[in-house]
Amino acid sequence: MGFSVSGASAIIFVGMFISFGMVYTAASNGYEAVSEAQSAAQEDALAQTNTAIDVVNASYDAATDTLVVNVSNTGASSLSVGRTDLVVDNEYQTTAASSAVEGDAETDLWLPGETLSFTLTLTASPTRVKVVTESGVAAVEVL
Amino acid sequence: MASASASHLVLFIASLMVAASVAGTITNGVSQLSAAIDDQSYDVSGNIRTDVEVISDPGGPVYNRSGNENVSLLVKNTGSRSLPASGDALDVVVDGQYVADVAVTPLDAPDWSPGSVVRVEFSRPSLPTGDHRVKLVVNEDEEIFSFRT
User: What pTM did the predictor assign?
Assistant: First the structure.
């Protein structure tokens, strides 16, 4: 009798121990994944709050078919030129080859206070220009 | 005396077998529960990391841009994970009506990675003049875009 009870208890105890190990691992991994995602989302929200841009001017030169858009970073966070998008009359423009920060076309950093200028060739005069930063903060200029 | 030890031995083996089956059942149930927690947390963290923004200019033309009665929207991935650039991954509702056939075209990258833009295009034949409302749902992230035709 004595051996049966203690033997059975030992087996059940070991089973419980293994179960707890599995649940604990899953729960802590899950919690870690979710809290990491939340902190990434909070960082993005902070960067978005610190971002502000302003279209200084947008001008179209009919003689050379060029549109020049100057945008100033008036916020407090540094932005990426590659992740900044230009939409002209709701047409997405590929800006990789046509952008320069304070005259420097090589850099990808657009720091607070600096002016980013886009130069692109358009056959017709546009009416609306929209610049969108990586966090979704946007500025519209009507020509 | 010998018969007593034999019956004790039988009872001992029986109790071990019952205990082992109970422990096996509990472990099995708990391992399924752990797998479910794993899957759920993966989904939840993916939903938290997903954020998109409609960057189309509502003041510019959105409907019937190329004469084929399509609504075309530019949608930017502002979250921290890549999203599949296909119509299956996003749900579109226009003026309360679900749109089944949605085309998604990446514009500045081969996929829909963070920071890149896709064009979401779907057909709405003869949309009446007036105000319209588009709702985009990607991984439980909802965006509302209103425009006028």
Answer: 0.84
